[in-house]
Design goal:
- With about 230 residues, the chain is an alpha+beta fold.
- The chain has 3 helices and 10 strands.
- The chain has a 5-stranded antiparallel β-sheet.
- The longest helix is centred in the N-terminal third of the chain and has 36 residues.
Length: about 230
């Protein structure tokens, strides 16, 4: 009996040693796994660059329109004037001495600047010119005058003939007439819209609203127009 017990104890001792060896091996493996997780690391970055890789690759376009009130339209006479009253339309000396039935004319050309994207432009109704002193009690002359505006993609002389060769975009009382359509403007100044303004003092002795034409003598008026432009 004693011999058997000794054998069982020996076998148990050997099994215990194996378990301890396995556990020890597991501990070694566990330690080894922890070391493996602490691996080398690296990062990579990119940025929104240009084709050459030396500058920003994202940005916005620009849209800018310029005007020229001097026909023929020399490059040097294109300007930007974005606040009322803006550039002065040259209606001529006779525009200050209108008599019943007279009409006077003045041109302006619009285009985009170099580097601008394309867009369109729409003439708005006339308003009083800021900072220009006039003599027109009650605005009677301003209310009596009528306007027509013709536009052409090619440069023409701004006179009565412009209203047969061009497209009439506005006509009616000075204070309310606005363009019925918009005109396209190509980018980089690649197209020009040529506008011709016609201002007329009616010949009727009595005007709408009861104004007597004879009462308008010696008065002055200074309307200003806004060309509202929007990019495509």
């Amino acid at each position: 009996m004693a011999g058997r017990r000794s054998a069982r104890v020996a076998r148990g001792t050997r099994r215990s040693s194996k378990v301890k060896a396995v556990l020890a091996g597991g501990a070694v493996l566990g330690l080894g796994a922890t070391v493996t997780l602490a691996a080398w690391t690296d990062t990579e970055w990119v940025f929104a660059g240009n084709a050459a890789g030396d500058g920003p690759g994202l940005g916005t376009s620009s849209f800018e329109v310029e005007q020229n009130t001097t026909n023929p339209y020399a490059e040097a006479t294109y300007v930007q004037d974005e606040t009322n009253p803006g550039g002065a339309l040259a209606f001529g000396v006779s525009a200050l001495s209108l008599t019943p039935g007279d009409a006077v004319y003045a041109p302006v050309a619009l285009r985009t600047v170099e580097g601008s994207i394309a867009g369109s432009v729409t003439l708005q109704p006339a308003v009083a010119a800021d900072g220009i002193t006039t003599t027109d009690p009650g605005g009677a002359l301003y209310g009596a005058l009528t306007v027509r505006v013709a536009v052409s993609p090619t440069n023409t002389v701004c006179n009565a003939a412009a209203f047969t060769t061009g497209t009439i975009v506005a006509t009616g009382p000075l204070a309310t007439a606005a363009a019925s359509t918009s005109q396209p403007l190509e980018g980089d100044g690649d197209s020009v819209q040529h506008y011709c303004f016609e201002i007329t003092l009616p010949a009727s002795p009595t005007l709408p609203g009861g104004t007597v034409l004879a009462d308008l003598q010696g008065r002055t008026a200074a309307p200003a127009w806004n060309f509202a432009a929007v990019s495509q």
